[in-house]
């Protein structure tokens, strides 16, 4: 007979009896017919698969109506009133738990699931009476995101079975990946459940995944059958080793989806809630038979499926075999057996409810045996409070507790499927996740036993010195662009310009100082000007020494000794400036550059201007009267020359006051397109405009002197070097007309420092050499090689100059009176009224000898 306190009815699927049993107001209608000695702690239900075995067949229901229920001993059953349901344990599937939770919350009945992991069940506002001893998929999704990022993958695709579990799992993964950043979803595909041709649908999915070949990692939330089919489709597409699978807990450590296609799954990373094998359960379950486990109404269907046989009882669902079950089959001997991973959580769920009821009874019924009235009328909210506050070590030795949303803490084991470098294919534990990831990458291996982690990235990392140009809408995809010019790579996406005094280093990851250069003495740009300047200085010293040695001879006296020495000083300074322009810049050198840059030319042309002006005034005055013009004495000439020179000095001093001398490093002058050739130029702080202004006054004197040379071109050739001065000025003008375009035309050149310095110094050397050669070398030649010509001829008064001026004026209107159009005079060169001397003009042979002497002097 059925035990007291149980009711009995015939089941639809097996014809066995089903009884309802209250256990101290515990959970719900029991699906077995227990004996009175069974207690809560000893009951361990078999794995639940409600989607296949929970519904009885229509024929069974008809059969149950025809046959009255009886107990096993033939006695009629004793019906009792069902106890009130105060708690429910289950379900396994999230979709079932959601439907049940929506109903139970209306009656405020707490529910504890042992396998439902859908993230939406964490919503305490919609499912406020729902709790679970497994972590939600949001924790699982977080763990999977951490795994993907730890492996360096930033471009993945997702694949989900249609339904609450798969779609919500992928949704959580995508949301967490967006929040974490640095992870992009290439494709998010869904496996439809109402498909007609499985093969075609899965082949299409693989084809879609291959449209983004760089996204090799596939995050998959799918059931066993879908996992099996997608692996088969990948194998048909000859993509073994291409995809990197990251499976959720539905894949876990299951072997059945991988049968006959282990090579496709090699390297697959799977995740499972942390679990342990329950000791004693294997011995208990493998000892179950049809006779001793009648309390489980689904056990008969399990028996048929496990042993591939068919029971003779009414309602059998095994239609694909004719083999009859004998009842003597044994689990684990005649079939493969492996402990289901959810056993631990089923036990923990039962104990969580038992602990809550126990604590509730202790608090409300301290002095009462059994269920007291306070506990009887406490309600579901009170029980829920006790459920949420339980904290005990579960069957695996890990704490069982719930957070405010009814979720268990996330603890996951991470596995990888290996087929190579191992005796038997299988899953290997490679890490765990408990709020943070612990992954042993060194123990992981991939297709064909490769140890190096394969890539699943949209774009390869850029080389040093390249920045990422992001693809719009795809933060993980980019193009690499070189930081060109003077830019360096500041970070992954930014190129910045180096500061003005720096250039990029070799790999463009930073900046380095630009080398500092100056015009060196050994440079070809400096050798030629220095050589010319040294020849000029030697020649100038030679001429000056000759003049000093023969200071009282007629030629030296006739040339105007005072202005001659002034002119030689200016020529000497023109040569000296070459060395100042090439010397290493410092404040002292820059100061002397400013002073002597225009001073040498100013002294030279001031002396020549004074001479030409004197000649011009003498002959102009001679045309009008016999009275000598003013300011033609040597003292007056020196005073005029000094006055002209003082203007240059005054300008230089004003320049010193306004802009004190300083040295600078010009980084723009030699900043070429190629940063490797960039140089900083150490130079004085003198601009091109300031150089021209410093030389401007000297050029003005030169032009004025040239005008006077033109005006005195008709003066007899023996009068105060009028024609040699004219030739000197014409030549000098040509030199400086060539200098100006070269100087300004190279202002933008990278060789500006060298070209302009060389051009300036050579121009000054040539100007000084022309003056020295035209004005002094003929005299030195006569003094040294023809001393017989260096004699005093006769002395004349200023009236002779007047006569010569008058004759010159007349002859200028009658050039045909003489064959060469010149006046034949014998006036002395010095027009001083008190002292007149004459030196014989050079003959042709003597002039040729002078030219040879001049060339010899320049070359020596």
From TrEMBL:
Q: Which residues form a coiled coil?
A: none
Record Pfam families: 7tm_3, ANF_receptor, NCD3G
Give the InterPro entries listed for this entry: ANF_lig-bd_rcpt (IPR001828), GPCR_3 (IPR000337), GPCR_3_9-Cys_dom (IPR011500), GPCR_3_9-Cys_sf (IPR038550), GPCR_3_C (IPR017978), GPCR_3_CS (IPR017979), GPCR_3_mGluR7 (IPR001883), GPCR_3_mtglu_rcpt (IPR000162)
**PROSITE patterns reported in the protein's UniProt record:** G_PROTEIN_RECEP_F3_1, G_PROTEIN_RECEP_F3_2, G_PROTEIN_RECEP_F3_3, G_PROTEIN_RECEP_F3_4
Which superkingdom, per the lineage?
A: Eukaryota
Stretch forming the signal peptide: none
Residue segments, region Disordered: 1-21, 45-76
- Which membrane topology describes this protein? Multi-pass membrane protein
Low complexity bias locations: 49-76
Q: Which PANTHER family match?
A: METABOTROPIC GLUTAMATE RECEPTOR (PTHR24060)
The name on file for this protein is Glutamate receptor, metabotropic 7
Q: Which organism is it from?
A: Columba livia (Rock dove)
């Amino acid at each position: 007979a059925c035990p007291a306190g149980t009711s009995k009815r015939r089941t639809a699927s097996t014809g066995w009896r089903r009884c309802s049993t209250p256990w101290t107001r515990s959970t719900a209608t029991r699906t077995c017919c227990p004996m009175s000695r069974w207690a809560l702690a000893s009951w361990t239900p078999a794995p639940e698969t409600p989607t296949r075995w929970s519904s009885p067949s229509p024929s069974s229901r008809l059969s149950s109506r025809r046959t009255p229920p009886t107990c096993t001993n033939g006695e009629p059953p004793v019906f009792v009133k069902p106890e009130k349901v105060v708690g429910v344990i289950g379900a396994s599937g999230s979709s079932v738990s959601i439907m049940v939770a929506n109903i139970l919350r209306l009656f405020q009945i707490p529910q504890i699931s042992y396998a439902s992991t859908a993230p939406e069940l964490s919503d305490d506002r919609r499912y406020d009476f729902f709790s679970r001893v497994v972590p939600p998929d949001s924790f699982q999704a977080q763990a999977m995101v951490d795994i993907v990022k730890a492996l360096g993958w930033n471009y993945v695709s997702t694949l989900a079975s249609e339904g609450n579990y798969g779609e919500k799992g992928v949704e959580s993964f995508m949301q967490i990946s967006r929040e974490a950043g640095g992870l992009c979803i290439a494709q998010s595909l869904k496996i439809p459940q109402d498909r007609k041709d499985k093969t075609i649908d899965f082949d299409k999915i693989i084809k879609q995944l291959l449209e983004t070949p760089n996204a090799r990692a596939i995050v998959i939330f799918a059931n066993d059958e879908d996992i099996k089919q997608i692996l088969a489709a990948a194998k048909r597409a000859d993509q073994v080793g291409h995809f990197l699978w990251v499976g959720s807990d539905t894949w876990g450590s299951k072997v059945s989806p991988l049968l006959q296609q282990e090579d496709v799954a090699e390297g697959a990373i799977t995740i499972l809630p942390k679990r342990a094998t329950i000791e004693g359960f294997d011995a208990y379950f493998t000892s179950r038979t049809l006779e001793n486990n009648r309390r489980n109404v689904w056990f008969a269907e399990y028996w048929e499926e496990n042993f591939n046989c068919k029971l003779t009882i009414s309602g059998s669902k095994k239609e694909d075999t004719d083999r009859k079950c004998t009842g003597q089959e044994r689990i684990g001997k005649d079939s493969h057996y492996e402990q289901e991973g959810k056993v631990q959580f089923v036990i923990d769920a039962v104990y969580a409810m038992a602990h809550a009821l126990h604590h509730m009874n202790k608090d409300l019924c301290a002095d009462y045996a059994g269920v007291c009235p306070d506990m009887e009328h406490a309600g579901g909210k009170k029980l829920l409070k006790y459920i949420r506050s339980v904290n005990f070590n579960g069957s695996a030795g890990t704490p069982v507790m719930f957070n405010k949303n009814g979720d268990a803490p996330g603890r996951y084991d991470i596995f990888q499927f290996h087929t190579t470098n191992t005796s038997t294919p299988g899953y290997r534990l490679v890490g765990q996740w408990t709020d943070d990831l612990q992954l042993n990458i060194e123990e992981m291996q991939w297709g064909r036993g490769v140890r190096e982690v394969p890539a699943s990235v949209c774009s390869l990392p850029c080389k040093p010195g390249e920045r990422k140009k992001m693809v719009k809408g795809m933060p993980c995809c980019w193009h690499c662009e070189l930081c060109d010019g003077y830019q360096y790579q500041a970070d992954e996406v930014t190129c910045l310009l180096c500061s003005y005094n720096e250039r990029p280093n070799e790999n463009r990851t930073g900046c380095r100082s630009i080398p500092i250069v100056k015009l060196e003495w050994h440079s070809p740009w400096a050798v030629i000007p220095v050589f010319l300047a040294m020849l000029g200085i030697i020649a100038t010293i030679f001429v000056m020494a000759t003049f000093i040695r023969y200071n009282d001879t007629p030629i030296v006296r006739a040339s105007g000794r005072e202005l001659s020495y002034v002119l030689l000083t200016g020529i000497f300074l023109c040569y000296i400036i070459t060395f100042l322009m090439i010397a290493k810049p410092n404040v002292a050198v820059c100061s002397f550059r400013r002073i002597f840059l225009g001073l040498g030319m100013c002294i030279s042309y001031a002396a020549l201007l004074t001479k030409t002006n004197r000649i011009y005034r003498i002959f102009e005055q001679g045309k009008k009267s016999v009275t000598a013009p003013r300011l033609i004495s040597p003292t007056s000439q020196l005073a005029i020359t000094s006055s002209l020179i003082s203007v240059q000095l005054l300008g230089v001093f004003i320049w010193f006051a306004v802009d004190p001398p300083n040295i600078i490093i010009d980084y723009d002058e030699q900043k070429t397109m190629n940063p490797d050739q960039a140089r900083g130029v150490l130079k004085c702080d003198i601009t091109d405009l300031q150089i021209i202004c410093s030389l401007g006054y000297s050029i003005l004197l030169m032009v004025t002197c040239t005008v006077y040379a033109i005006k005195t071109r008709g003066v007899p050739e023996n009068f105060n070097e009028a024609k040699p001065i004219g030739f000197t000025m014409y030549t000098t003008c040509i030199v400086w007309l060539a200098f100006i375009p070269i100087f300004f035309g190279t202002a933008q050149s990278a060789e500006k420092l060298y070209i302009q310095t060389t051009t300036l110094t050579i121009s000054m050397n040539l100007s000084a050499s022309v003056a020295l050669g035209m004005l002094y070398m003929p005299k030195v030649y006569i003094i040294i090689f023809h001393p017989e010509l260096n004699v005093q001829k006769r002395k004349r008064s200023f009236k002779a100059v007047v006569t010569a001026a008058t004759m010159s004026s007349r002859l200028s209107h009658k050039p045909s009176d003489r064959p060469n159009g010149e006046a034949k005079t014998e006036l002395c060169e010095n027009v001083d009224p008190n002292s007149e001397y004459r030196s014989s003009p050079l003959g042709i042979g003597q002039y040729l000898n002078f030219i040879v002497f001049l060339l010899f002097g320049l070359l020596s």
